[in-house]
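Hey team,

Filing this mostly as a record. A colleague (T.K.) asked me to run one chain through the structure pipeline before their review meeting, and I want the input and output archived in the tracker in case anyone asks later how it was produced. No errors, nothing strange. Just documentation.

Input sequence:
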Amino acid sequence: MKTVNQADYRLTASTVSGAAGGTVPVTVTVHNAGPAWVASFSAGEPAATVDIDIPVGTSVASAPDTCWSQSETRYRCNTPIYLTESGKPAAHTFPFGLHIDEVIPNATGRAVLYNDAYEPPVRTFDPDLTNNTATLTVNPDELTHAPSGCPARPLRQPCTTASAGRTRRSSLRAVRTSEHPRVGGEDTS
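Output structure:
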């Protein structure tokens, strides 16, 4: 019986907010949830390659040494030749500094694992290619938690409820949602 060794790669990316003229730290991370580890010891090729599109309204202020510009809005990044950590799920993070040139609500950029970059191609050992993309978001449309009787709504939009014949305006409280990477049922963030 032939056994196929699998390593499930997954990408995650930051969601951040900032003002025009500021610089915000963002990350794109390649996770290997296993069960196999991945290494290219003899060929010396990266374990994974990621293409990252920079969100509109931003420019790259700093990039890791393992990434290079393909254009003003796209970077390509390589992991080390291995993506393993002593039998545990492993990850490699690419930290960037993005300068916010202009605030554009919900500006997004896409990070995509290049599935066919090296031998063996990722698609031959990764059982789930659907999680090999992630969205990098700058200044997301924020929602608020509303008091009882008020639905969630865009930030700065008041909620008016009628109570005992009176109308009251609620205060707004912004809540950000962020992706919490989970591997093997354990929180890895």
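Quick notes for T.K.: The chain has no helices and 18 strands. The radius of gyration is 21 Å.
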